[in-house]
């Protein structure tokens, strides 16, 4: 449901930008870094929206990559801690073991703040 609402909002945004761009077709003065020139306003608008989308997508991709790295390191740490726990305390099938003791919880910041 959440993904569908993003798609619908994206389509509405694209339609609004397209209508806005089609209404504005007059040539305008564009100042570049090393000069200036004239370009149709529709191209300036569409190029600006395209660049904004590319920059936003690039930032999102960087965030996703960082989160995937963090997830991978946390999974390996979790696996390592489970193996260490199994070596120190054999697990029985009848009684579930709580891997966090009060000492560990306090060290991890779960205890009372001083």
UniProtKB/TrEMBL annotation:
Region called Disordered, residue ranges: 76-114
Segments crossing the lipid bilayer: 7-25, 41-65
Domain of life from the UniProt record: Bacteria
Name of this protein: Lipopolysaccharide assembly LapA domain-containing protein
Domain Lipopolysaccharide assembly protein A intervals: 24-86
UniProt entry keywords in alphabetical sequence: Cell membrane, Membrane, Transmembrane, Transmembrane helix
Ranges of biased composition (kind: Polar residues): 89-103
Cross-referenced InterPro entries: LapA_dom
Biased composition (Basic and acidic residues): 76-87, 104-114
Pfam families to which the protein is assigned, alphabetical: LapA_dom
């Amino acid at each position: 449901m959440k993904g569908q609402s993003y798609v619908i909002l994206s389509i509405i945004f694209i339609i609004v930008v397209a209508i806005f761009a089609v209404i504005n077709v007059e040539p305008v003065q564009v100042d570049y870094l090393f000069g200036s020139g004239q370009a149709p306003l529709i191209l300036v608008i569409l190029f600006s929206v395209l660049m904004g989308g590319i920059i936003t997508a690039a930032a999102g991709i960087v965030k996703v990559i960082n989160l995937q790295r963090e997830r991978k390191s946390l999974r390996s740490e979790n696996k390592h801690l489970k193996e260490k726990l199994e070596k120190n305390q054999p697990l029985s099938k009848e009684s579930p073991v709580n891997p966090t003791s009060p000492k560990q919880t306090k060290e991890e910041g779960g205890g009372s703040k001083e």
